């Protein structure tokens, strides 16, 4: 007996399709507390709004950090710009002081080049006025700094203000640099002019001393203006010279100051050398040396020169000194003798009047008496003698020394 078997075929299960939920689908948040539960529904709109809010907060924070950082950089650049501006102001002040000091050295001189120097001084004054116009309203130069703890909004406003101020300041710095350059050019011209004047004046004095020595050498004498070590003598408090960044200008200043010092020394020397005319209007009626005596016509030595002039004309001393005689001397009449303390002495004879007394200190150019005809004289004139280290020398070399 055959059994038949039937195969059972299982039917496949049907797959259920579960649709995917959207990213911002409604969500529930359940809070349990003991046997009680609270359910909060969060809608998709609420989720989108919360995401947007979080993104905005992040963007705002990043932007705020960027603005603080940028504002800080701008203020740092502004501080550097201010420092550069202040440095330029210091350069200008130094240059202007140099010009003022040089003009002060020449203020009392009556020189032909004075008009040129005045022109340069006017240029410097114009530059100074421009600088004052630039800096009159710059109160920030005295500020310690600005408060950087500001809000983002304040930082934006501060950034705009700093950018504007920096642009204006850079423009002013450019103007100031141009002004300083022009001022340095003017100062260089002034230095060259001062150098030329100083060299010319010093050379004039050296030539005068050389001419004087030609006369003195005939009496086996020699006057050395450098004797005594005065030229190398120095002292006083230390006052540093203003610093100048321009190397060429600084070098020229050093050269000119040496020339000015040299001139100052020789001018001081000439204060005690009787060079110049003791009376303004005269003619030489009797020279120095041997001559025929005006009374007996015999040959005689003449120790000075006779300068004929009108009675009463003023006599001036040509060097600083001390009056050693002011009295009547036979043959000389009213006579003055002055010791100039460096080996030189001068005598003035036949005076109508004497204005000084023995022991009196006199200065170069001071009036000491009047032309007369006292003593052994044939008419109004000044008998003028110059003595160096005990020997009479030709006074005409001293009278004409500064004119040659």
Tally of helical segments: 5
Strand content: 15-25%
Mean pLDDT: 77
Instruction: Please compute the radius of gyration using only Cα atoms.
Output: 49 Å
Q: What letter string, H or E per element, gives the SSE order?
A: EEHHHHEEEEEEEEEEEEEH
| Separation of the first and last Cα atoms | 173 Å
The tally of strands reads 15
Principal-axis shape equals rod-shaped
Question: What are the salient characteristics of this protein?
Answer:
404 residues; alpha+beta; Glucose Permease (Domain IIA); 3 domains; 8-stranded antiparallel β-sheet; 3-stranded antiparallel β-sheet
Report on the structure:
This protein has 404 residues and is of the alpha+beta class. The protein has three domains: 47-141 and 149-193; 205-233 and 242-270, no CATH class; 283-403, Distorted Sandwich (Glucose Permease (Domain IIA)). 44% of the residues lie in helices and 18% in strands. The protein has helices at residues 44-106, 114-135, 152-217, 247-270, 396-399, and strands at 27-33, 36-42, 283-286, 289-292, 299-302, 305-308, 314-316, 321-329, 333-339, 344-349, 353-354, 361-362, 367-370, 381-388, 391-393. Strands 3, 6, 8, 9, 10, 12, 14 and 15 form an eight-stranded antiparallel β-sheet that branches. Strand 14 (381-388) and strand 15 (391-393) form a beta hairpin. It is rod-shaped. The termini are far apart. The model is unreliable at 140-150 and 235-239 (pLDDT under 50).
């Amino acid at each position: 007996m055959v059994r038949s078997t039937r195969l059972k075929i299982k039917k496949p299960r049907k797959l259920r399709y579960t649709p995917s939920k959207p990213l911002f689908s409604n969500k529930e948040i359940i809070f349990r507390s003991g046997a009680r539960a609270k359910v909060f529904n969060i809608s998709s709109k609420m989720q989108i709004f919360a995401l947007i809010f979080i993104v905005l907060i992040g963007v705002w924070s990043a932007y705020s950090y960027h603005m603080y950082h940028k504002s800080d950089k701008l203020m740092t650049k502004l501080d550097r710009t201010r420092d550069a501006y202040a440095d330029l102001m210091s350069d200008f002040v130094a240059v202007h002081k140099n010009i003022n000091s040089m003009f002060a050295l020449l203020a009392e001189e009556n020189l032909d080049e004075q008009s040129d120097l005045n022109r340069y001084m006017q240029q410097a004054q114009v530059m100074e006025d421009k600088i004052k116009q630039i800096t009159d309203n710059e109160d920030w130069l005295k500020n310690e700094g600005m408060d950087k703890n500001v809000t983002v909004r304040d930082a934006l406003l501060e950034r705009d203000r700093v950018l504007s101020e920096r642009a204006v300041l850079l423009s002013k710095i450019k103007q100031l640099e141009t002004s300083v350059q022009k001022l340095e050019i003017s100062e260089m011209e002034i230095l060259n002019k001062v150098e030329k004047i100083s060299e010319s004046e010093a050379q004039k004095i050296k030539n005068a001393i050389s001419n004087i020595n030609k006369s003195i050498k005939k009496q086996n004498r020699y006057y050395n203006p450098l004797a005594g070590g005065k030229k190398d003598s120095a002292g006083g408090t230390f006052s540093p010279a203003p610093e100048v960044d321009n190397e060429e200008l600084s070098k020229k200043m050093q050269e000119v100051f040496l020339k000015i010092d040299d001139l100052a020394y020789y001018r001081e020397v000439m204060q005690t050398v009787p060079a110049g005319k003791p009376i303004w209007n005269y003619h030489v009626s009797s020279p120095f040396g041997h001559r025929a005596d005006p009374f007996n016509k015999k040959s005689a030595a003449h120790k000075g020169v006779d300068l004929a002039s009108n009675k009463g004309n003023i006599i001036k001393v040509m060097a600083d000194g001390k009056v050693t005689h002011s009295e009547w001397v036979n043959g000389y009449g009213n006579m003055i003798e002055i010791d100039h303390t460096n080996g030189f002495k001068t005598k003035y004879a036949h005076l109508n009047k004497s204005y000084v007394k023995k022991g009196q200190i006199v200065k170069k150019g001071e009036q000491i008496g009047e032309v007369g005809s006292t003593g052994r004289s044939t008419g109004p004139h000044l008998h003028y003698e110059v003595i160096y280290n005990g020997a009479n020398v030709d006074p005409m070399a001293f009278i004409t020394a500064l004119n040659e």
